[in-house]
Amino acid sequence: xxxxxxxxxxxxxxxxxxxxxxxxxDLARLWEGxxxxxxxxxxxxxxxxxxxxxxxxxxxxxxxxxxxxxxxRCSVRLTDGPDGHAYVQGRSRDKALQAALTDALMQGDAADxxxxxxxxxxxxxxxxxRASRAAKAAATKVDFFTMVRGED
Length: 152
What we know:
Elements: H1 3-21, H2 24-34, E1 40-55, E2 64-78, E3 83-89, H3 93-106, H4 111-139
Antiparallel strand pairs: 1-2, 2-3
Helix pairs in contact: 1-3, 1-4, 2-3, 2-4
């Protein structure tokens, strides 16, 4: 695999991960500002299913089944060629379709516009949510200290 191919793969993983984690309402709001859906053919209509989540204690123990999560998948083909795929958290068929269309558009000439109007704002929203969560967690932080009682 060439360096260029690895970079393209890493970039695609990043935007697909961002789309999968995004809130459906945020993606829908941004799509409204982006314009009408591009001409496309649905290869796999949005389907709702489930996946088993696995975890490890302390990142070193044996893997165990933590629970299940709902996911929705979709595949599309734009009329000018690129295919787009999406697996998103939750049960939103619209979000899965919009994410698959975004994936397809990112592989074509519209990538810069899609990044500026959809992906960059989604990344900013995600960053704000993480900062808010971190601030809430920091507010509950407890510092423990030990006092030494005199020297003998």
